[in-house]
Amino acid sequence: AVSRVPLIAGNWKMNLDHLQAIAFVQKLAWSLADAKHDFAAVEVAVFPPFTDLRSVQTLVAADKLPLAYGGQDLSAQDSGAYTGEIPGGFLKQLDCGYVIIGHSERRTMHAETDEVVAAKVQAALRHDLVPIICVGETAEDLEEHGPSAVPVAQLKAALAGVSSAADIVVAYEPVWAIGSGQAATPEQAEQVAAALRATLAETLGEDVAAKTRILYGGSVKAANIAGFMREPNVDGALVGGASLDIDEFSSIARFQ
Ligand code: PEP
Questions:
Q1: 173 lines ligand 1 (CB under 6 A)
Q2: Which residues take part in binding substrate (predicted)?
Q3: Which residue has its alpha carbon closest to ligand 1 atom 1?
Q4: Among 23, 65, 173, 180, who pairs with 60 as Cys (CB 3.0-4.6 Å)?
């Protein structure tokens, strides 16, 4: 809200190959330009699969597109015998600005613990990538512990070893709202975002808490984005399904 530049981030997950990515990013840039999108006022970023990143880099550089992009994950290691892993250095070489860390799909399907998430945050920061640290509770967590306990604990764990000079983004993504069509209410998102900001203040200081962007994610669409963006502690959105539709994602970037 106040002095923070909102960020609208599209997590493509395992969709759009490198040829589709080129067409998509080009059309997205046209759509936003057509709508006279002010990129200085609202940052827009896409998170394609790893194999698309070289193509996206080439297009963004050639056409000087004002879009940011990054990886959906990275390795906690920098190089070596880690079959199938991608290190932060390789993402940085492709001019990635951001990397998503600890998405609930990684936590549940790839058994990523809070310790792994913390190590990946360190890896991102070593390579000058801004980590988008995802936290969020399941429906069972919500029932058992209330709305903020699990996301706050996950954030504290992810920040182990992070200095107050670090540039980070936090994404609050209730697991029950991801891909379910059942978004949190703006009030629910605000309540947890405020708790996460208080956690940032406690662990990294008031200045970091004031400047760090906290995104909401979970069934965000053009039809509900405006409500989230009116909340003082919500500074943008991490968008899954709706980021694969150019007109929809372009509308979300304009909060309409
Ligand atoms: C996500 O996976 O980060 C997400 C928010 O997905 P969706 O928007 O599809 O709920």
A1: yes
A2: 11-13, 179, 219, 240-241
A3: 240
A4: 65
How close is the Cα of 245 to the center of ligand 1, in Å?
A: 13
Q: Note the CATH architecture for domain 7-253.
A: Alpha-Beta Barrel (3.20)
Instruction: Provide CB contacts within 8 A for 233, sequence distance 6+.
Output: 1, 190, 193, 194, 196, 197, 214
For residue 113, the one-letter residue type is T
Percent of the chain exceeding pLDDT 70 equals 99
User: Is residue 11 part of an annotated ligand binding site?
Assistant: yes
Residue type, 200: L
Q: Is 241 in the pocket of ligand 1 (CB under 6 A)?
A: yes
> Is residue 238 lining ligand 1, measured as CB closer than 6 Å?
yes
Q: Is the ipTM of this complex over 0.85?
A: yes
Q: State the DSSP code for 81.
A: S
- CA torsion 206-129-231-229 (nearest 10°) is 150
* Length of the chain as a residue count: 256
* DSSP β-bridge partners for residue 101: 133
**Residue at token pair 């975002």:** 193
Domain residue spans in the chain?
Answer: 7-253
Q: Is 15 annotated as a binding residue?
A: no
Query: pTM of the predicted model, to two decimals?
Result: 0.97
Count of CA atoms in the C-beta half-sphere (13 A) of 200: 25
For residue 10, give Cα distances in angstroms to 2, 7, 170, 215, 255: 22, 10, 14, 12, 14
